[in-house]
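Predict structure. Chain length: 181.
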Amino acid sequence: MKRRLTTAVASASVAAALLLAAPVAAQAYVPTGPNTVTITVTSNGPVPVSGFQPGAEVTFTLVGRGVTGANIATANLPVTSASVTKTADSSGAATAVVTLPANPSGSYTLAASGARADSNGGGGSNNGGGNNNGGTNALPETGVNGESLMGIYIGGGALVLAGATVAVAAKVRRNRAENKA
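Prediction complete.
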């Protein structure tokens, strides 16, 4: 009996660790902040973003399903991100070349972060397919989005229900075995 309890506790611990570790690996980071311009990319090609200080280092981060390199994404893979650094030209524009797969799945976001030419950190332009959400002086959103945790709640509930079912079935089987003896 003691060995069964130890095995059950060990199994529950492994299941809990896997349940908590899975969402961490599945989420990709999209940079936000006052010096960041975020663009939803819908087509292939160069994506110029202006409004940076001339000669500033601009880091482009592409986030989407199956992003494998700094400028390339492939379909049907987990949401990941990749970054590349470019230098803004004399007019304050920097360009990243984005290549999407033949059948893109989900959305692809390109974030450009660097020293902005304007004092409030907002603005920027997007000529590369999509919309520009711009930036502001507001603090970036942090914390947990309740909607993103729905899968964890459903999965946890399913695991608890499965565990309870196994426990009840084992108890019923033990009682039947004792009644026959």
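Summary: The two ends are 18 Å apart (CA to CA).
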